[in-house]
Amino acid sequence: MKVAIITGASSGIGRSAAIQIARRGTGVILTYGNNSQGGLETAAAIEKDGGTAVALPLDVGETGAFPAFRNSVADVLRDTWQRDTFDYLVNNAGFAHTSLIEDTTEEMFDRLMRVLLKGPYFLTQRLLPLMEDGGAIVNTSSNSAMGSGLEPGYSAYASMKGGLDVLSRYMAKEFSTRGIRVNSISPGSTRTRIADDAFERFPEVVPALAAKTALGRVGEPDDIGMMIAALLSEESRWVTAQNIEVSGGYNL
């Protein structure tokens, strides 16, 4: 059985990706940050569907925890799947913060950098020795780093996501010698718990976002989760170093 690691799978896009990947017969190791209940609920939903999932805690912004996490992954692979390696990695964990450039603090800039760029960089580096040749990686970026998604207030967040897009191409270049494919996806506005449940707290923004989207609605987690699952799958075996906008045609 193939095994995937998905970070930030306690809700939203990560939860959807974990469930969609498991539905294709892949075992799942998923991580959660502060929302342990959400992580366990995702694992339970996969098990209820007949899949196999293990939930582990991980703060992607704390690289010092990565060696212990790698050891936990190795233990889980051996105990649950009798394997020494895994096949797929989804670097999805993150958070959003908006502020105009004039209002952005160094502390917030550094936190965004640690979670959105430094975390995926060094977590991938740490897990790479456990990864099977011929596997695949998907990094969750954002269309805020693209011309189509430019909105005031996202300068720091989008700069880190833009860095992740570049990193994805370099990963694809360097890991190709092992047959590992690497792509990134750039969701548009998606109804998740991001930014402290912003969609729940400010429902009035939804019609405006839908009006700017060619397909006439905001994204749902499964719109993105299915794309992640598809990029890991055999159908995408000849796709690497791509960044795919998954936004329903935002600002089209």
From TrEMBL:
Superkingdom as given in the UniProt entry: Bacteria
The protein's name: SDR family NAD(P)-dependent oxidoreductase
Organism: Streptomyces mirabilis
One Pfam family linked to the record: adh_short_C2
InterPro entries cross-referenced by the UniProt entry: NAD(P)-bd_dom_sf (IPR036291), SDR_fam (IPR002347)
Protein family membership: Belongs to the short-chain dehydrogenases/reductases (SDR) family.
